[in-house]
């Protein structure tokens, strides 16, 4: 019996090494390939959170569909909301394949969202009280998302990579949509510029938190594992620095300011220095205690319950077809 246990351990160890060798060669892992349990769990956590964040992220902008200032803007933001919902459904489908061997389904993910086990991104717990917020979400929040998602385009998990290629292509249009709103307001009246500045001030702490806490010289075990498995290729702080490189000069070019007098770029070090946000507040937000957490979850729950008849009808059609 002892020899059999040793053989099984060796076999698992050999499988893991073969798996790591595949990843190091640049091979892609498909849903039906063997994978380590922690690889599967890391993917489920990442992709489920990403998918739910796409769905929850449509809600702040959904509020502005009936209030958009022109018909063209209304059609544009309506299309953006539709795209975000589609991204969420696409990603949950990817997550479903990973959940199936564990005996779990998409319904379990929905339940986890409603019970607080599954988190969604900190930025989508925030309020969007003005039209300028819709612009900042499209320009800066989606811009931050593109940076994160672009990092994972070459992820080792093939289904996620394929989904991201489609999502990133559409997110670029979303960022252009947001930039168009921002530029119009920046070139508008004094009141419009003030509204835009207030929106930037309001969103800046959430944008700093977007990529997660800095490593302070030591990356977390989750980041380290994801980098080893080539699920991701950059740390939180590397992503944040990339965001600063791209967007801080553009914000200043528009004559806008940031609510941080300390922010500056050190050319010799190639590093941005900035005032850290309140990371305790970040923890509270992602745990469901943000400014709009309860309202957004309740809206999603109502929408889910009201659409139950659609899911029932589809399942009935599937059973009849069989």
UniProtKB/TrEMBL annotation:
Q: What residue intervals traverse the membrane?
A: none
User: Which InterPro entries has this protein been placed in?
Assistant: Aromatic_CoA_ox/epox (IPR052703), Ferritin-like (IPR012347), Ferritin-like_SF (IPR009078), PaaA (IPR011881), PaaA_PaaC (IPR007814)
User: Where would one find coiled-coil regions in this protein?
Assistant: none
Gene3D superfamilies recorded: 1.20.1260.10
Query: What superkingdom does the record give?
Result: Bacteria
Known Pfam families for this protein? PaaA_PaaC (PF05138)
In its UniProt entry, what is this protein called? 1,2-phenylacetyl-CoA epoxidase subunit PaaA
């Amino acid at each position: 019996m002892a020899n059999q246990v040793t053989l099984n351990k060796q076999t698992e160890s050999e499988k893991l090494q073969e798996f790591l060798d595949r990843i190091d060669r640049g091979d892609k892992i498909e849903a039906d390939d063997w994978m380590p349990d922690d690889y599967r769990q890391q993917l489920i956590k990442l992709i489920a959170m990403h998918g739910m964040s796409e769905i929850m992220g449509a809600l702040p902008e959904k509020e502005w569909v009936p209030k958009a200032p022109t018909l063209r803007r209304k059609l544009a933001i309506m299309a953006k909301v539709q795209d975000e919902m589609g991204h969420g459904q696409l990603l949950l489908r990817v997550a479903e394949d990973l959940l199936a061997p564990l005996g779990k389904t998409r319904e379990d993910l929905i339940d986890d969202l409603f019970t607080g086990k599954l988190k969604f991104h900190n930025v989508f717990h925030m309020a969007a009280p003005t039209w300028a917020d819709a612009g900042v979400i499209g320009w800066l929040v989606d811009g931050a998302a593109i940076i994160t998602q672009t990092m994972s385009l070459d992820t080792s998990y093939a289904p996620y990579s394929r989904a991201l290629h489609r999502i990133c292509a559409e997110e670029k249009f979303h960022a252009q949509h947001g930039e168009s709103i921002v530029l119009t307001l920046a070139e508008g009246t004094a009141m419009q510029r003030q509204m835009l500045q207030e929106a930037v001030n309001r969103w800046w702490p959430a944008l700093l938190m977007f990529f997660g806490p800095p490593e302070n010289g030591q990356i977390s075990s989750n980041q380290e594992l994801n980098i080893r498995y080539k699920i991701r290729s950059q740390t939180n702080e590397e992503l944040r620095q990339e965001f600063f490189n791209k967007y801080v000069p553009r914000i200043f070019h528009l004559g806008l300011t940031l609510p941080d007098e300390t922010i500056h770029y050190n050319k010799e070090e190639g590093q941005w220095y900035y005032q850290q946000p309140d990371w305790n507040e970040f923890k509270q937000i992602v745990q469901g205690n943000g400014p709009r957490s309860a309202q957004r979850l309740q809206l999603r729950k109502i929408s889910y319950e009201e659409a139950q008849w659609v899911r029932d009808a589809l399942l009935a059609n599937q059973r009849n077809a069989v």
